[in-house]
């Protein structure tokens, strides 16, 4: 249980490496709580795999629930012009949705709306609970869902990779990332490789994974497996 009064005096910004009062870091006493202060808003998330502590509080009050309170203006989904796909965290829990425009409304803007039920959760989608310590990161849910049939992966739900996402992955056993952003974001992917030691390789895409032909998809999966073997030095994965 989080008492936000314990953190109200913290300066603005994100504070990592705190001891979670709910799980107490388990047997080893891991310090896996992240608290973000934004004005009078306090967000928290425990990165320990067996802990469910997360939430958001306005005004620095005490929130005794791990679930986030409802926003003042409830999110009203457009179920006629949009189609929802669930956002799942690394443990398989649904933490939000992406509402894509229906193909019958090609001019509807924006193309996608993201609604998070747990605003403290990092903006990542895992189609499946990943096996191993190496994953690929793509941009969108559709690409991730297709790729997950053959290779552990997650969707960035955009092109942003930051300290919050890196810490989340590290605390869940992910050591190596193969970055697979769309062709127009290759420079950004290369910058991530320079800035983050866990981003080991960048694979340049000529087409989104979701739009690849079966032949191109098979070649991409083969390249991913070769890259993983090169990174891990393991030939039996």
Chain-wise SSE layout:
Blueprint: E1 13-18, E2 33-38, E3 41-46, E4 54-58, E5 82-88, E6 94-101, E7 112-116, E8 134-138, H1 141-147, E9 153-155, H2 163-171, E10 176-179, H3 186-195, E11 199-202, H4 214-232
Parallel strand pairs: 8-9, 8-10, 10-11
Antiparallel strand pairs: 1-2, 2-3, 3-4, 5-6, 6-7
Give a quick summary of the entry:
The protein is of the alpha/beta class and 237 residues long.
Describe this structure in words.
By secondary structure, the protein is of the alpha/beta class. It has three domains: 4-58, no CATH class; 82-116, no CATH class; 134-232. Helix content is 19%, strand content 25%. It is built from four helices and eleven strands. The strands form three sheets. A four-stranded antiparallel β-sheet has the order 1-2-3-4, with no helix packed on it. It has a four-stranded parallel β-sheet with strand order 9-8-10-11, sandwiched between helices. A three-stranded antiparallel β-sheet has the order 5-6-7, with no helix packed on it. Helix 1 links the parallel strand 8 (134-138) and strand 9 (153-155). The radius of gyration is 19 Å and the shape is globular.
| Total tally of structural domains | 3
Overall pLDDT level = 83
Shape: globular
State the helicity in percent bands: 10-25%
Ranges with pLDDT <50 over ≥5 residues? Answer: 60-72
Number of E-type strands = 11
Q: State the separation between the terminal residues, measured CA to CA.
A: 40 Å
Structural class: alpha/beta
Strand content: 15-25%
The neighbouring-strand order within the major sheet is 1-2-3-4
- Total number of helices: 4
Q: Can you summarize the main beta sheet?
A: 4 strands, antiparallel
Order of SSEs, N→C?
EEEEEEEEHEHEHEH
């Amino acid at each position: 249980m989080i008492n936000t009064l314990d953190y109200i005096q913290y300066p603005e910004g994100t504070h990592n490496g705190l001891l979670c009062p709910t799980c107490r870091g388990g047997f080893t006493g891991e310090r896996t709580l992240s608290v973000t202060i934004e004005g009078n808003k306090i967000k928290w998330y425990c990165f320990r795999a067996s802990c469910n502590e997360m939430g958001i509080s306005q005004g620095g009050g005490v929130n005794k629930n791990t679930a986030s309170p409802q926003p003042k203006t409830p999110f009203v989904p457009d179920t006629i012009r949009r189609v929802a796909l669930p956002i799942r965290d690394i443990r398989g829990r649904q933490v939000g949705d992406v509402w894509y425009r229906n193909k019958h409304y090609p001019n509807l803007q924006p193309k996608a709306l993201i609604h998070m039920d747990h605003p403290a959760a990092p903006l990542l989608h895992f189609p499946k609970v990943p096996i191993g310590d190496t994953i690929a990161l793509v941009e969108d849910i559709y690409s991730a869902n297709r790729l997950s049939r053959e290779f552990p992966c997650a969707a960035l739900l955009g092109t942003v990779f930051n300290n919050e996402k890196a810490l989340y992955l590290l605390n869940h056993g992910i050591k190596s990332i193969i970055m697979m952003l769309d062709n127009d974001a290759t420079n950004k992917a290369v910058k991530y490789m320079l800035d983050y030691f866990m981003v080991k390789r960048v694979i340049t895409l000529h087409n989104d994974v979701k739009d690849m032909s079966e032949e191109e998809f098979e070649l991409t999966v083969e390249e991913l497996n070769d890259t993983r073997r090169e990174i891990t030095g393991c030939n039996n994965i």
